[in-house]
Amino acid sequence: MTEEKKRADNDSPWKEVLETYFPQAMQFFFPEIAALIDWNHPHLFLDKEFQAISYNAATGRLYADKLVSVRLIKGNVLWLLIHIEIQAESEDIFAKRMFLYNIRIFEYYDKPCTSIAVLCDSNHDWRPNNYTLESPGTKHNFEFSTVKLLDYKNKWAELEQSENPFATVVMAHLKTQETIKKAQERKNWKFSLIRRLYQVNCPERDIRNLYRFIDWVMLLPSELEREFWQELKQFEQERKMSYITTGERIGYERGREEGKRLILRQQQKRVGELSQETRVTVQSLSANQLGELGEALLDFTGIDDLVHWLEANRAE
Fold first, then answer.
1. Which residue has the higher pLDDT, 196 or 290?
2. Is the pLDDT of residue 183 over 50?
3. Rg of the chain over CA atoms, in angstroms?
4. I need a surface site. Which of 9, 30, 264, 277 has the fewest CB within 10 A?
């Protein structure tokens, strides 16, 4: 898998932007459901509850799933299971999986759940919205709501006029899909989408948050990334708005986290399964120490070598 594929398919930016702008996501994608929710009452992400019903099988696919508790205007509590299908391909068992998650929530917690999905794939014809399970004398017919990001291609002017943060999220996703193997065109769109945030007078916080999403999904080759960054800094200087000067820090922190994950994978392949304590120790290393550990791994023959190295180079 190429580095572009790994980053473009990563579910982290979707989960982050969904948590940051959950009310706006519902209002953008599912306005009829959003209209029933009392947004003056805080919503709650039920991560622990979702872990209890989620599948552990490794499918190779990436999703941004969130179970959220909201209060309706009528006063009762509603659980929402929001599924974002990150990978750009259809899946035959998708509807069945949505059905089983819904049933599991009812089985574990005796609560009905509204299941909704955002489909990010590139297949125009793949639009799952129901699952039927039938045997003689018995029939289950499960229906759920979906939105298809490809449908917004024909609504580009509306996206540009929208003040909802998820309009930018959708535009970034669509242009990422359209510019595969078109690096220069992607760079131009990346700059255009970020410039638009300033032009429509987005609050500084929203510019920073949406920049993180755009920067993560719209990966560029290193040379074009440098050109993009220089153009962005010049643009900010001209507008006297240095909102993304922290982009260098964001990139550094993101690179450091990616480095940690890579080192952990390398360690596991080299010396076997790592204990939670060892993982925590690696997470505490500085960027320089991570680089040194990456080189030292080449000489490791077992877990003892790793343990001794960490004891000698433990972060302060």
1. 196
2. yes
3. 22
4. 277
Structural contact between residues 265 and 282, judged by C-beta atoms closer than 8 angstroms: no
| Single-letter residue type at 236 | E
Better pLDDT: 14 or 285 = 14
Cα–Cα dist 67/115, whole Å: 9
Q: How far apart are the first and last CA of the chain?
A: 35
Please give the backbone phi and psi of residue 145, each rounded to the nearest 5 degrees, phi first. Answer: -95, 140
**Spatial contact of 83 and 54, defined as CB atoms under 8 Å apart:** no
pLDDT computed for residue 130 by the predictor: 94
- Has residue 11 got a pLDDT over 80? no
φ/ψ (deg, to 5) at 36:
-90, -10
Please say if the pLDDT value at position 143 is more than 90: yes
Find all residues with CB under 8 Å of 33, minimum gap 6, and list them.
26, 80, 114, 116, 145
Distance CA 281, CA 214 (A): 31
Report which of 247, 258, 178, 163 is spatially closest to residue 212, judged by C-alpha positions: 247
Specify the amino acid at residue 275. Answer: S
Spatial CB neighbours of 245, under 8 Å, sequence gap ≥ 6: 233, 236
- Burial of 120: CB neighbours in 10 Å, binned 0-12, 13-18, 19+: buried
Residue 220: phi and psi, rounded to 5, are -125, 155
Q: Are the C-beta atoms of residues 272 and 303 closer than 8 Å to each other? A: yes
Per residue in 112-138, pLDDT (tens digit) is 999 999 998 888 888 999 999 999 999
